[in-house]
Design brief:
This protein is mainly α and 297 residues long. Helices cover 74% and strands 0% of the residues. It has 13 helices and no strands. Helix 2 packs across helix 4 and helix 7 crosses helix 10. It is elongated. It starts with a helix and ends with a helix.
Length: 297
C-alpha cells in the first residue's frame, strides 16, 4: 500500500473516531457516567497520598471503633477504629484493578472464541460452540467460587477466576458480528485471492469486531466488580487487601449491619452501585453508537 493510501486510511480512522466521540457526547447520561468514573479513578490513584496506609494500621489508630460520621472522620470509623473513607479509597483500587484486569482477560478469551466460532466450520466450529454453550449455561459466579476455592487465596486468583468465567457473553456477541462480516464481498475477494484464515481474521474480522468488543468491555467491568465484591463478601477474597466486598464482609462479621452502624455498610454498598451504574451508562451509550444492529434501528 502506498504512503498516500495509508494516510487516507489514518485520516478516515481519525474522522470516524471524532464522529464517535461526538455521538457519545450527545448522550448526557454517558457524559455524567464518564465524568464520575474519571473522578473515582483519580481518587483511587491518589489514595496513598490522600490516606497513607499507616493511618489504617489497627496498631496506630487512635479513634474509637464505630464512631459516627463527623468532621474528623467524614464517613465514620469501622469496628477497629479505622477511617471508613480511607478504607473506601483503598478499596476502590482493588475493586477497579480486579474489574479492569478480569475484563481484559474475558475480552481476549471471548473475542478469540467468538471469531473462531464465526469463521471456522465443521468440527472446529462445533467444538468451540459447545465450549461457549457450557460457559453460558453454568453461572459464572458458581465457576468463580469453585476456582477461588481450589486456587491459592489472593487478588490474582480473583482476577483469573472472574476472567476465565465471564467471557461467554462476549463470545456470543463477537460470533454474531463475525458471521455478518464473513458474508461481505471483500471477504470473498480475499478468499479468491488466496488469503488464509490468519489474514482474514487478523486484517478484516478483528478490526471490524473491535468497536463492538470495546462497547461490551465497559459493561463487563461493572459485572466483574460485582463478582469481586461477591467473592470477597463470601470470604474468598484476599484477606490482606482492602476492597469494597471485604468491607461488607467485615461489617457482617462484626455485626455492624445489625447494630445500627449504617455508615460502614452504606459506604461500600453505595460505592459499588455508583461505579457499576457509571460503567453501565457509558457502556450503553457506546453500544448504541458502535453496535451496527442498534444503529440500524
Amino acid at each position: 500500500m502506498t504512503t498516500s493510501g495509508q494516510a487516507a486510511i489514518r485520516a478516515r480512522r481519525r474522522a470516524r473516531f471524532a464522529e464517535v466521540v461526538r455521538e457519545i457526547a450527545s448522550h448526557p447520561s454517558a457524559v455524567i457516567g464518564a465524568a464520575l468514573l474519571l473522578v473515582i479513578i483519580v481518587l483511587a490513584l491518589l489514595a496513598p497520598v490522600l490516606m497513607p496506609m499507616d493511618r489504617l494500621d489497627v496498631t496506630q489508630v487512635t479513634a474509637r471503633g464505630n464512631e459516627s460520621p463527623s468532621g474528623g472522620h467524614w464517613l465514620g470509623t469501622d469496628p477497629s477504629g479505622r477511617d471508613v473513607l480511607g478504607l473506601l479509597l483503598w478499596g476502590s483500587r482493588a475493586s477497579l484493578l480486579v474489574g479492569f484486569s478480569a475484563t481484559a482477560i474475558a475480552m481476549v478469551i471471548g473475542t478469540t472464541f467468538g471469531m473462531a466460532a464465526g469463521h471456522f466450520t465443521g468440527l472446529t466450529r462445533a467444538v468451540v460452540l459447545r465450549i461457549i454453550d457450557f460457559f453460558l449455561v453454568v453461572p459464572s459466579l458458581v465457576l468463580a467460587i469453585v476456582l477461588s476455592t481450589v486456587l491459592s487465596r489472593g487478588l490474582s486468583t480473583i482476577v483469573i477466576a472472574i476472567g476465565v468465567t465471564s467471557w461467554a457473553q462476549t463470545a456470543r456477541v463477537v460470533r454474531a458480528q463475525t458471521l455478518t462480516i464473513e458474508t461481505r464481498p471483500y471477504i470473498e475477494r480475499s478468499r479468491a485471492l488466496g488469503a488464509g484464515d490468519r489474514h482474514i481474521i487478523g486484517k478484516h474480522v478483528l478490526p471490524a469486531v473491535m468497536p463492538l468488543v470495546m462497547a461490551n468491555t465497559t459493561l463487563t467491568v461493572g459485572s466483574a466488580i460485582i463478582l469481586e465484591s461477591t467473592l470477597a463478601f463470601l470470604g474468598l477474597g484476599d484477606p490482606t487487601t482492602f476492597s469494597w466486598g471485604s468491607m461488607l464482609k467485615t461489617a457482617l462479621d462484626t455485626g455492624a449491619a445489625t447494630a445500627g452502624y449504617w455508615w460502614f455498610v452504606l459506604a461500600p454498598g453505595v460505592a459499588i452501585v455508583i461505579v457499576v451504574l457509571c460503567f453501565t451508562l457509558v457502556g450503553r451509550a457506546l453500544e448504541a453508537v458502535l453496535n451496527p444492529t442498534l444503529r440500524a434501528r
